[in-house]
Amino acid sequence: MADAEATRHGPGRILILVYGIFALAATARAGVQIATQYSEAPLAYLLSAVAAVIYCAATFALARATVVSRKVATVAIVVELAGVLGIGAFSYAAPDDFPDQTVWSHFGQGYGFVPLVLPILGLLWLRRTAKN
């Protein structure tokens, strides 16, 4: 059983803040890209929108800090990690599909690799705050 409240205390506050910043940034960027440049890189921009939704889900779930939201946060962060690893690899394998950077392309290189490190820290924090 986990102490759901623990996810939003101490370093958890910083984690929620960073997730919130990424949720806002990814949502805004995807919205602008889809509205103004969609035909240039539809796959990349749609994947940015998916990343935005996942960042929003993780942010709200971590901040809500209930037993259910903790499970939602775990699922969102695992999907995020799979996404950044999968899209990161795919963006190198099929660079023509990524003519513009996305949050997860090249393993988050355009964002200082924070998108690669953030889900690892998120999962470690969820594990650290779990009761044994």
Secondary structure blueprint with pairings:
Layout: H1 11-37, H2 42-64, H3 67-93, H4 114-128
Describe this structure in words.
By secondary structure, this protein is mainly α. The chain has helices at residues 11-37, 42-64, 67-93, 114-128. α1 runs antiparallel to α2 (42-64). The longest helix has 27 residues, at 11-37. The radius of gyration is 15 Å and the shape is elongated.
Low-confidence stretches: none
Percent in helix: 55-70%
Give the CA-CA distance, first to last residue.
7 Å
Shape: elongated
Oligomer: single chain
Strand content: under 5%
The Rg value, from CA coordinates, equals 15 Å
Class from helix and strand fractions: mainly alpha
Feature tags:
mainly alpha, 132 residues
Outline of the structure:
This protein has 132 residues and is an all-alpha fold. The chain is built from four helices and no strands.
